[in-house]
Amino acid sequence: MRQVSCALTIAGTDPSGGAGIQADLKTFQELKSYGMSVVTSVVSQNTTGVKDVHHLPENFIKSQLEAISEDMPVHALKTGMITNKGMMRVISEWLDEVAAPYIMDPVMVAQSGDPLIEKEDQRYLKEYLVPRTSLVTPNIPETEVLVGGKIKTEADMKEAAEMIVKDLGAGASLVKGGHLHGRAVDFLYDGGRVYEFESERIDSPNTHGTGCTYSAAITAYLSQGHALPQAVKEAKYFVTEAIRHSFDLGKGSGPTNHFALREEVFNKWL
Protein backbone atom coordinates (compact mmCIF):
# COMPACT_ATOMS: atom_id res chain seq x y z
CA MET A 1 0.00 0.00 0.00
CA ARG A 2 1.30 3.46 -0.90
CA GLN A 3 2.56 5.59 1.99
CA VAL A 4 0.86 8.97 2.20
CA SER A 5 2.39 12.04 3.83
CA CYS A 6 -0.23 13.88 5.89
CA ALA A 7 -0.05 17.59 6.72
CA LEU A 8 -2.42 19.46 9.05
CA THR A 9 -3.24 23.16 9.15
CA ILE A 10 -4.84 24.81 12.19
CA ALA A 11 -5.93 28.28 11.15
CA GLY A 12 -8.66 30.67 10.06
CA THR A 13 -10.47 30.73 6.75
CA ASP A 14 -10.31 33.01 3.71
CA PRO A 15 -13.39 32.85 1.47
CA SER A 16 -11.47 34.55 -1.36
CA GLY A 17 -9.14 31.54 -1.40
CA GLY A 18 -5.77 33.28 -1.27
CA ALA A 19 -4.81 32.89 2.38
CA GLY A 20 -5.62 30.93 5.51
CA ILE A 21 -6.75 27.34 5.43
CA GLN A 22 -7.73 27.54 1.78
CA ALA A 23 -4.19 28.55 0.78
CA ASP A 24 -2.68 25.90 3.05
CA LEU A 25 -4.76 23.09 1.58
CA LYS A 26 -3.99 24.19 -1.99
CA THR A 27 -0.29 24.18 -1.13
CA PHE A 28 -0.41 20.73 0.48
CA GLN A 29 -2.21 19.37 -2.58
CA GLU A 30 0.24 20.87 -5.07
CA LEU A 31 3.24 19.53 -3.15
CA LYS A 32 1.71 16.06 -2.88
CA SER A 33 0.92 15.87 0.81
CA TYR A 34 -2.53 14.85 2.02
CA GLY A 35 -4.05 17.98 3.55
CA MET A 36 -6.20 18.15 6.69
CA SER A 37 -7.57 21.20 8.50
CA VAL A 38 -8.88 22.43 11.82
CA VAL A 39 -10.71 25.76 11.71
CA THR A 40 -10.05 28.24 14.53
CA SER A 41 -11.88 31.27 13.12
CA VAL A 42 -14.28 31.87 10.26
CA VAL A 43 -13.10 35.05 8.60
CA SER A 44 -14.97 37.32 6.20
CA GLN A 45 -12.16 38.71 4.06
CA ASN A 46 -11.02 39.30 0.52
CA THR A 47 -8.07 40.91 -1.25
CA THR A 48 -8.90 44.31 0.26
CA GLY A 49 -8.91 43.20 3.90
CA VAL A 50 -10.81 41.61 6.76
CA LYS A 51 -14.52 42.47 7.09
CA ASP A 52 -15.54 40.36 10.06
CA VAL A 53 -14.35 37.43 12.18
CA HIS A 54 -16.18 34.72 14.09
CA HIS A 55 -13.99 32.75 16.51
CA LEU A 56 -15.06 29.16 17.08
CA PRO A 57 -15.59 27.96 20.66
CA GLU A 58 -12.58 26.35 22.30
CA ASN A 59 -14.41 23.07 22.90
CA PHE A 60 -15.23 22.82 19.20
CA ILE A 61 -11.62 23.47 18.24
CA LYS A 62 -10.63 20.73 20.69
CA SER A 63 -13.21 18.39 19.15
CA GLN A 64 -11.78 18.97 15.67
CA LEU A 65 -8.23 18.32 16.87
CA GLU A 66 -9.23 15.11 18.62
CA ALA A 67 -11.19 13.96 15.57
CA ILE A 68 -7.96 14.19 13.58
CA SER A 69 -5.54 12.62 16.05
CA GLU A 70 -7.78 9.68 16.98
CA ASP A 71 -8.18 8.64 13.36
CA MET A 72 -5.51 10.10 11.04
CA PRO A 73 -1.70 10.24 11.04
CA VAL A 74 -0.15 13.68 11.34
CA HIS A 75 3.34 13.84 9.84
CA ALA A 76 3.69 17.63 10.17
CA LEU A 77 1.41 20.48 11.22
CA LYS A 78 1.23 24.24 11.13
CA THR A 79 -0.74 26.92 12.89
CA GLY A 80 -1.82 30.21 11.39
CA MET A 81 -4.48 32.43 12.91
CA ILE A 82 -4.89 31.62 16.61
CA THR A 83 -6.11 34.78 18.26
CA ASN A 84 -6.52 34.18 21.98
CA LYS A 85 -4.96 32.21 24.80
CA GLY A 86 -7.99 29.94 25.11
CA MET A 87 -7.35 28.62 21.60
CA MET A 88 -3.62 28.50 22.31
CA ARG A 89 -4.15 26.49 25.49
CA VAL A 90 -6.30 23.91 23.69
CA ILE A 91 -3.72 23.54 20.92
CA SER A 92 -0.81 23.35 23.37
CA GLU A 93 -2.48 20.56 25.36
CA TRP A 94 -3.37 18.66 22.19
CA LEU A 95 0.23 18.78 20.96
CA ASP A 96 1.06 16.24 23.67
CA GLU A 97 -0.88 13.68 21.64
CA VAL A 98 1.12 14.05 18.42
CA ALA A 99 4.77 13.52 17.59
CA ALA A 100 5.26 15.62 14.49
CA PRO A 101 7.12 18.78 13.42
CA TYR A 102 5.12 21.87 14.39
CA ILE A 103 5.51 24.99 12.23
CA MET A 104 4.09 28.24 13.58
CA ASP A 105 3.18 31.07 11.22
CA PRO A 106 2.68 33.72 13.93
CA VAL A 107 -0.18 35.72 12.44
CA MET A 108 0.10 38.62 14.87
CA VAL A 109 0.11 41.83 12.81
CA ALA A 110 -2.19 42.89 9.95
CA GLN A 111 -0.80 44.35 6.70
CA SER A 112 -2.02 47.71 8.01
CA GLY A 113 0.30 47.32 11.00
CA ASP A 114 -2.55 46.81 13.45
CA PRO A 115 -2.14 44.01 16.03
CA LEU A 116 -4.33 40.96 15.45
CA ILE A 117 -3.99 39.57 18.97
CA GLU A 118 -3.92 41.37 22.31
CA LYS A 119 -0.68 41.82 24.28
CA GLU A 120 -1.73 39.34 26.97
CA ASP A 121 -2.37 36.73 24.29
CA GLN A 122 0.95 37.58 22.63
CA ARG A 123 2.69 36.86 25.93
CA TYR A 124 0.90 33.52 26.25
CA LEU A 125 1.89 32.57 22.71
CA LYS A 126 5.54 33.39 23.37
CA GLU A 127 5.62 31.61 26.73
CA TYR A 128 3.62 28.46 26.01
CA LEU A 129 3.37 27.83 22.28
CA VAL A 130 6.66 29.05 20.81
CA PRO A 131 8.67 26.58 22.93
CA ARG A 132 6.58 23.75 21.45
CA THR A 133 7.51 24.62 17.88
CA SER A 134 9.93 22.99 15.48
CA LEU A 135 10.00 26.23 13.47
CA VAL A 136 8.58 29.75 13.74
CA THR A 137 8.24 31.75 10.49
CA PRO A 138 7.70 35.45 11.30
CA ASN A 139 7.83 38.34 8.87
CA ILE A 140 9.51 41.57 9.97
CA PRO A 141 6.54 43.09 11.90
CA GLU A 142 5.88 39.75 13.62
CA THR A 143 9.56 39.39 14.46
CA GLU A 144 9.51 42.81 16.08
CA VAL A 145 6.63 41.70 18.31
CA LEU A 146 8.39 38.47 19.24
CA VAL A 147 11.75 40.01 20.16
CA GLY A 148 10.52 43.43 21.30
CA GLY A 149 12.73 45.54 19.02
CA LYS A 150 12.96 47.10 15.58
CA ILE A 151 14.30 45.13 12.62
CA LYS A 152 15.94 47.44 10.08
CA THR A 153 18.86 45.49 8.61
CA GLU A 154 19.87 41.96 7.66
CA ALA A 155 22.10 41.89 10.73
CA ASP A 156 19.01 42.64 12.84
CA MET A 157 17.22 39.75 11.15
CA LYS A 158 20.00 37.29 11.95
CA GLU A 159 20.19 38.44 15.55
CA ALA A 160 16.42 38.17 15.94
CA ALA A 161 16.39 34.66 14.45
CA GLU A 162 18.87 33.57 17.10
CA MET A 163 16.93 35.32 19.88
CA ILE A 164 13.70 33.50 18.98
CA VAL A 165 15.51 30.19 19.51
CA LYS A 166 17.80 31.04 22.41
CA ASP A 167 15.49 33.34 24.40
CA LEU A 168 11.99 32.11 23.48
CA GLY A 169 12.77 28.42 23.10
CA ALA A 170 11.70 27.76 19.51
CA GLY A 171 13.22 24.74 17.82
CA ALA A 172 14.25 26.95 14.89
CA SER A 173 13.27 30.29 13.41
CA LEU A 174 12.94 31.63 9.88
CA VAL A 175 12.91 35.43 9.79
CA LYS A 176 11.55 36.57 6.43
CA GLY A 177 12.82 39.75 4.79
CA GLY A 178 9.99 40.59 2.44
CA HIS A 179 9.21 43.83 4.28
CA LEU A 180 12.76 45.18 3.95
CA HIS A 181 14.13 46.90 0.86
CA GLY A 182 16.93 45.34 -1.11
CA ARG A 183 17.52 41.61 -1.31
CA ALA A 184 14.63 39.17 -0.90
CA VAL A 185 16.45 37.16 1.72
CA ASP A 186 15.32 35.04 4.67
CA PHE A 187 17.45 33.77 7.54
CA LEU A 188 16.98 30.37 9.17
CA TYR A 189 18.57 29.65 12.54
CA ASP A 190 18.31 26.04 13.69
CA GLY A 191 20.14 26.34 16.99
CA GLY A 192 23.50 25.58 15.42
CA ARG A 193 24.01 27.81 12.41
CA VAL A 194 22.38 30.50 10.31
CA TYR A 195 21.27 29.62 6.78
CA GLU A 196 20.58 32.27 4.13
CA PHE A 197 17.92 31.87 1.46
CA GLU A 198 17.80 34.49 -1.27
CA SER A 199 15.51 34.73 -4.28
CA GLU A 200 14.66 37.28 -6.91
CA ARG A 201 12.53 40.10 -5.53
CA ILE A 202 9.48 40.09 -7.79
CA ASP A 203 7.71 43.39 -8.35
CA SER A 204 4.11 42.32 -7.92
CA PRO A 205 1.22 43.75 -5.91
CA ASN A 206 -0.33 40.29 -5.71
CA THR A 207 1.09 38.89 -2.49
CA HIS A 208 -2.10 38.00 -0.61
CA GLY A 209 -1.44 34.84 1.40
CA THR A 210 2.32 34.56 0.87
CA GLY A 211 3.05 33.89 4.55
CA CYS A 212 0.43 31.16 4.72
CA THR A 213 1.67 29.60 1.50
CA TYR A 214 5.34 29.68 2.51
CA SER A 215 4.77 28.06 5.90
CA ALA A 216 2.38 25.51 4.38
CA ALA A 217 4.99 24.55 1.80
CA ILE A 218 7.57 24.02 4.56
CA THR A 219 5.01 21.89 6.42
CA ALA A 220 4.34 19.79 3.33
CA TYR A 221 8.02 19.11 2.72
CA LEU A 222 8.63 18.28 6.38
CA SER A 223 5.69 15.87 6.32
CA GLN A 224 7.55 14.04 3.55
CA GLY A 225 10.68 13.71 5.66
CA HIS A 226 12.82 16.51 4.19
CA ALA A 227 15.47 18.02 6.44
CA LEU A 228 14.57 21.51 7.65
CA PRO A 229 17.06 23.54 5.55
CA GLN A 230 16.06 21.64 2.40
CA ALA A 231 12.35 22.08 3.19
CA VAL A 232 12.84 25.84 3.56
CA LYS A 233 14.88 26.03 0.35
CA GLU A 234 12.21 24.21 -1.66
CA ALA A 235 9.38 26.17 -0.04
CA LYS A 236 11.14 29.47 -0.82
CA TYR A 237 11.28 28.46 -4.48
CA PHE A 238 7.61 27.45 -4.44
CA VAL A 239 6.38 30.73 -2.95
CA THR A 240 8.63 32.79 -5.25
CA GLU A 241 7.14 31.15 -8.32
CA ALA A 242 3.65 31.52 -6.85
CA ILE A 243 4.27 35.28 -6.67
CA ARG A 244 5.91 35.39 -10.11
CA HIS A 245 2.80 33.84 -11.69
CA SER A 246 0.28 35.44 -9.30
CA PHE A 247 -3.28 36.25 -10.29
CA ASP A 248 -4.46 39.79 -10.97
CA LEU A 249 -7.75 39.19 -9.16
CA GLY A 250 -9.77 41.37 -6.83
CA LYS A 251 -9.59 45.05 -5.99
CA GLY A 252 -6.70 44.76 -3.53
CA SER A 253 -3.58 42.65 -3.25
CA GLY A 254 -4.32 39.68 -5.47
CA PRO A 255 -3.60 36.04 -4.58
CA THR A 256 -0.51 34.04 -5.34
CA ASN A 257 -0.72 31.16 -7.81
CA HIS A 258 -0.64 27.85 -5.95
CA PHE A 259 -0.26 25.80 -9.10
CA ALA A 260 2.57 27.85 -10.58
CA LEU A 261 4.92 24.86 -10.64
CA ARG A 262 2.70 22.80 -12.89
CA GLU A 263 4.36 22.13 -16.21
CA GLU A 264 1.41 23.37 -18.23
CA VAL A 265 1.52 26.71 -16.40
CA PHE A 266 5.16 27.22 -17.27
CA ASN A 267 4.53 26.25 -20.87
CA LYS A 268 1.72 28.79 -21.08
CA TRP A 269 3.17 31.72 -19.18
CA LEU A 270 6.96 31.63 -19.52
UniProtKB/TrEMBL annotation:
<keyword id="KW-0067">ATP-binding</keyword>
<keyword id="KW-0547">Nucleotide-binding</keyword>
<keyword id="KW-0808">Transferase</keyword>
<dbReference type="Pfam" id="PF08543">
    <property type="entry name" value="Phos_pyr_kin"/>
</dbReference>
<dbReference type="GO" id="GO:0005829">
    <property type="term" value="C:cytosol"/>
</dbReference>
<comment type="pathway">
    <text>Cofactor biosynthesis; thiamine diphosphate biosynthesis; 4-amino-2-methyl-5-diphosphomethylpyrimidine from 5-amino-1-(5-phospho-D-ribosyl)imidazole: step 3/3.</text>
</comment>
<dbReference type="InterPro" id="IPR029056">
    <property type="entry name" value="Ribokinase-like"/>
</dbReference>
<feature type="domain" description="Pyridoxamine kinase/Phosphomethylpyrimidine kinase">
    <location>
        <begin position="14"/>
        <end position="257"/>
    </location>
</feature>
<dbReference type="GO" id="GO:0008972">
    <property type="term" value="F:phosphomethylpyrimidine kinase activity"/>
</dbReference>
<dbReference type="GO" id="GO:0008902">
    <property type="term" value="F:hydroxymethylpyrimidine kinase activity"/>
</dbReference>
<keyword id="KW-0418">Kinase</keyword>
<dbReference type="InterPro" id="IPR004399">
    <property type="entry name" value="HMP/HMP-P_kinase_dom"/>
</dbReference>
<protein>
    <recommendedName>
        <fullName>Hydroxymethylpyrimidine/phosphomethylpyrimidine kinase</fullName>
        <ecNumber>2.7.1.49</ecNumber>
        <ecNumber>2.7.4.7</ecNumber>
    </recommendedName>
</protein>
<dbReference type="GO" id="GO:0009228">
    <property type="term" value="P:thiamine biosynthetic process"/>
</dbReference>
<dbReference type="InterPro" id="IPR013749">
    <property type="entry name" value="PM/HMP-P_kinase-1"/>
</dbReference>
<dbReference type="GO" id="GO:0005524">
    <property type="term" value="F:ATP binding"/>
</dbReference>
<comment type="similarity">
    <text>Belongs to the ThiD family.</text>
</comment>
<keyword id="KW-0784">Thiamine biosynthesis</keyword>
<comment type="pathway">
    <text>Cofactor biosynthesis; thiamine diphosphate biosynthesis; 4-amino-2-methyl-5-diphosphomethylpyrimidine from 5-amino-1-(5-phospho-D-ribosyl)imidazole: step 2/3.</text>
</comment>
